[in-house]
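Work package 3, deliverable 3.1, input record:
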Amino acid sequence: MTEFLDPSPSHTDMVQLLNPEGERVTHPDFEFSPDRPEDEAVRGFYRDMVLTRRLDVEATALQRHGELGLWAQLLGQEAAQIGAARALAPQDFVFPTYREHGVAWCREVDPMQLLGLFRGTDQGGWDPAEHNFGLYTIVIGAQTLHATGYAMGVQMDGLVGTGDPTRDTAVVAHFGDGASSQGDVNEAMVFAATYNAPVVFFCQNNQWAISEPVEQMVKVPLYKRAQGFGFPGIRVDGNDVLATYEVMKAALKRAREGGGPTMVEAYTYRMGAHTTTDDPTRYRLSDEVQAWKLKDPIARVEAYLRRGGGASTSFFTKVEAEADEFGERLRAGIQALPEPDPVKLFDNVYTELPEELREQRDGYAAYLASFEHEGASR
Amino acid sequence: MTKMTMAKALNAGLRRSMEDDDKVVLMGEDIGRLGGVFRITDGLQKDFGEARVIDTPLAESGIVGTAVGLALRGYRPVVEIQFDGFVYPAYDQIVSQVAKFHYRSGGRVAMPMVIRIPFGGGIGAVEHHSESPEAQFAHTPGLKVMACSNPVDAYWMIQQAIAHPDPVIFLEPKRLYHSTKADVDVDATPEALFESRVVRSGSDVTVLAYGPTVKTALTAAEAAAGEGKSLEVIDLRTLSPLDMAPVLESVRRTGRAVVVHEAHVNLGLGAELAARITETCFHSLEAPVLRVGGFDTPYPPARAEEHYLPDLDRVLDAVDRSLAW
């Protein structure tokens, strides 16, 4: 895979296997070869992307209705996330940002738990070890170091390069174009290179760090930075789920086999706002958004499946119905999320409650109870 | 019984932890082949290998951040920060990640990690090499903070901190690393980790100290005894959580307390101790709790540090002011 480092002139700058028109294109290094029959795999990707988008749409609406404090939208980045996540082996471990809703979906994290985080009922209700999917990380880029350290641990456990594909383990560090400026991301790459850690740096370049365009701080294509750290970097069309899947499969395989880190830049676009508090009309032109709409990651898969007969009309109807049902479940579930118990705020600061914190907790419980007593006596 | 300096005691403690638990890994700058700039990890890489005594790139956030990942994978990383003033690049990882992981995960994910920091001044070093950042960590829920003051505690406390399930900021008074030796009985039963201890009994004034200032306080108590004043000295050992019981018991007897630390007085540990003592035993106090510490200036150039650091005379001066109240 040294060709990553030195693409021959015949190679396009960006790996693509399905173009925006929904036509399959060839690439000298990558070929779509899923672990299932092709059409079945593509239908699976389509369903994942539609349901992920529905989650995003519903969550955005729930925020507008005051049910969530915030939502980080992924609209437009479905292919990057589903492609990257479906390339994982079960034992691989993922370190997400706060926008990896599609990856969470593939790792079978209950979407209600994502909503709980953004509603403010908890700070991430899933067990990372159960899903091999870390907690969402808000501080930009911090998780890339965790991923690298975890990958160093995998290596110490002797689970790299054993030749057993069910045991060899890779780690994915998710981050974005904005995070690429962070010291932590750069330090993570230095550490990963130093120890040849089995980590894949998966950068979703969605072109915008809130209001700052990627060109403002990125002066060479992001994937080319990898070379400076001493490992391969490659750019893939992040709106092409087939290409993202294949490129990630290759990078993960390389990590598991002991080849070390790879950086994958998924070139995509944030169709929505950074989060629901953001107003992108203040800093970007609608022409730009329109241009990217023509590259929509879901539309091209639908066009491909319809044109090639990979899916029947009833398949699309069925997925749509499933999405509607999913949306209803999310809307119904949101108000059923339990409100945090104030007395439990003190739990889990430490593995055991220290005496002084116990006193604070008991004091606050007594304080709250005093109001109940007043109310009762009135 | 083996006579050991604090440096040797820490080295022996680390070695024993690594023998006891093969998940213990050491990480830091120059800790392998060199044995650390203070030689605390001397010989450990030779005996335990490069996979367990890891020479890291020169990036503190990177060290602590990757240690988080190792802890998530089931390891017990022990991180060496080379000097106190270099911990700040890792501050975000420590405060936002290390300290909060167990809480954010609803108790599902533990973060057993020890971050060793040689701290304090008195060695004539250039700037950024003599700081006392303990209050910044003690202020952070989720971290435990402790300071050792002698070789015996150093030997046991480092092992207990490593075995502890919560993240621990472990402060080592660098000027005492090689100063005095003490008998360390490696077969003894150690004191509990999160307990403060009366290290000299007295009846007139309670002097609270930790790390490097315990020695200062004991010297002051010896001098005061010559003048007929009886100082009780308490080595706090644990800074977060504080172990207030022995402190309060002592202050109720003496009615007076002086806190001594090298850190800036403003919002330092002394402020918290003064508040808690006042809240809890107001009526036993004969004088306000007084604080002796570093001035509220950046750490000064080394040739002026003797003015900045609390010494025997400044402790005695505070004792006199307390007694004269």
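Residues 197-323 of chain B form a domain with the Rossmann fold fold (CATH 3.40.50.920).
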